[in-house]
Amino acid sequence: MLYLNKNKEALRRRNTGGVLSIFFISTILLFWFFPTKIALAPERQVELGNEMFVKNFSSELQGKSLGLVINHTSVLPPGRPLFQALLDKGQKIQAIFSPEHGFSGKVEAGKEVKDSQLKDIMIYSLYEKNKRPTPEQTYGIDAFVYDIQDVGTRFYTYITTLKYVLEAAAEAQIPVYVLDRPNPAGGDIIEGPLLRPEYESFIGALPIPVRYGLTPGELAMMMKGEGWVPKEFDLHVVRMKNWKRSYFWEDTGLPWIPPSPNMPTPETAIIYPGSSVLGTVKLNEGRGTPHPFLQFGAPWLDPSLLIKKLNGGEQFGIKLEAVNYTPRSLPGKALHPLYKNKECHGIRVRILQKEKFFSLRFSYEIIKALKNQQQHKLTTPSGYLNKIFGSNHLSDYIEGKISYEELISQVEQEEKSFREKRQKYLLYK
């Protein structure tokens, strides 16, 4: 009996050891073959300005009535809404102001947003008839608090809303607290020409490049310092902790909340500037598909020629793949995408090295190749292209008025000029 028990115990240990061996071998094989599938998420590195504000600054405003310029991204990690955190601290919220896409962030691009209400707090839309706070709406507000996640592109309208809020605050002599946030497109790369005054609009209201490499707080300081908004008001930028200029979103350890319906991933924010330019030259830029901005195409496009011309995208730190797709109407995202219900031959972009990917320069190369191969398909109303691009450099190149070398040279000069001008407003290394 004792002998049998010993045999059973030995068998149990041998089986357990075998199971453990299989487990460890399986784990090693998983790491070997599928490293990205099971990579651990980075620890959170960055503390947002709203966290610093709730901890340290809101006491300065105790008893004051606040006007919050916020939307669905205005949360403290791991997801507590800023307005609720302030209410819990006893702060009085006089009014909320929401930008394009609304307080929920679910309204389709370009669609008007109506005023609404949260509990007993009025939510004023800054994307309807009025795009800036009116004197009636600012009455009774002692301080504005701005906390919205941006994407670092000039024609993404949240920074125009910031500009208009600063102007309204200056007129009413109300201080503004900008709660700083990361630029998901990074803080080092600058791309595109400076916006010319004749092309100023709601989708471009500041003389900055398309990809400007500043945080919202740094940009607000530059607006005031350069006189792009009146200087006679108090501006307070509540800085982040531990953010670096070289960071892309994944480096922050923060969860990604899509700032708008067609910005589902931080990767999308990096390609968005260049893809939007491609959208002005009769290319579908992925709207109406599950991969907005990460692919582009048209029924007439020959993707193999483009991929060959760009050597697969290696010089840009990307991989290019030929795809066929059909844009569909997607309520809340893209009701009427270009080439709706028509099969498009296109290219899917996979970003491998973010620090090498200059999305605007990539778009110039695509346009250059199309100009050489299919010039007749590239015609576009220059008015919209110039509004997006901010100057007539690109439309002049497409129309044959300047060479490609002149286009690049003019844009690079303006990028260099801006890089020097912005230096004194940088809050982070």
Overview of this structure, please?
This protein is of the alpha/beta class and 429 residues long. It folds into 2 domains: 49-252, Uncharacterised protein PF07075, DUF1343 (Rossmann fold), CATH 3.40.50; 266-383, Aspartate Aminotransferase, domain 1, CATH 3.90.1150.140. Strands 5-6-4-1-7-8-9 form a 7-stranded mixed β-sheet, sandwiched between helices. It is 35% helix and 14% strand. The protein is globular and about 65 Å long.
Quick rundown:
This protein is of the alpha/beta class. It is built from 13 helices and twelve strands. The protein is globular and about 65 Å long.
Strand order across the largest sheet? 5-6-4-1-7-8-9
What is the radius of gyration?
A: 25 Å
Architecture of the largest domain, CATH level 2?
3-Layer(aba) Sandwich
Poorly predicted runs of 5 or more residues: 1-41
Distance between the termini: 74 Å
Class computed from helices, strands and strand pairing: alpha/beta
**Major pleated sheet:** 7 strands, mixed
CATH topology of the largest domain: Rossmann fold
Summarize model confidence as the mean pLDDT: 90
